[in-house]
Amino acid sequence: MNNGHGDRERRTAVRIPLGTEAFIQPAASQHPPRKARCVDLSVDGMTLHTVYVPRPDEIFEVIVRPHEGPLAGPPMHVRAQVKRCHPVNGSAVYEVGVKIVEVLK
Question: pTM above the 0.90 mark?
Answer without folding.
Answer: no
